[in-house]
Specification:
- This is GntR family transcriptional regulator.
- Keywords: DNA-binding, Transcription, Transcription regulation.
- With about 130 residues, the chain is mainly alpha-helical.
- It has a domain of about 70 residues: Orthogonal Bundle (Arc Repressor Mutant, subunit A).
- The protein contains five helices and two strands, in the order αααββαα.
- It has a two-stranded antiparallel ribbon.
- Strand 1 and strand 2 form a beta hairpin.
- Helix 1 packs across helix 3.
- The radius of gyration is 17 Å and the shape is globular.
- The two termini are about 25 Å apart.
Length: about 130
């Protein structure tokens, strides 16, 4: 995983976990990688993963079963989508709107491109 300097690593890892859940690679109700497993996989300090997991527990995306490990919440898809939507609206969308404004573009111009992107994603995930 390539980390950006513009955002805390634990939040970038939280985005990674949410993406795994939203892509249904990590199934709601099932165990997710342990702190150590994910730390090794992403080549980060286990304390960083622990901070990520604590944050995701606060967001109700994952939960801890003491002595067993961490699990994706039963409603993890909805909770992860809610979290990522909020993040997108607060962080990414203002820049997208600014670019559209500066380029004199109408959001309607993006519809065909978005439809094409959705088709590609569906084909990739099939």
């Amino acid at each position: 995983m390539q980390f950006r300097e513009t955002q805390s690593i634990y939040l970038q890892i939280a985005d990674y976990v949410c993406e795994k859940i939203l892509l249904k690679e990590w199934v709601p109700g099932e165990r997710i990688p342990s702190v150590r497993e994910l730390a090794v996989q992403l080549e980060v300090n286990p304390n960083t993963i622990m901070r990520t997991y604590e944050f995701l527990q606060q967001e109700s995306i994952i939960f801890n079963q003491r002595g067993i490990g961490f699990f994706a919440a039963n409603d993890a898809l909805e909770q992860a989508a809610r979290y990522r939507r909020r993040l997108f609206i607060e962080s990414d969308l203002p820049q997208v709107f600014r670019s559209l404004f500066l380029l004199g573009m109408d959001p309607e111009e993006l519809k065909p491109l978005y439809q094409q992107f959705k088709k590609q994603m569906r084909a990739k995930n099939s």
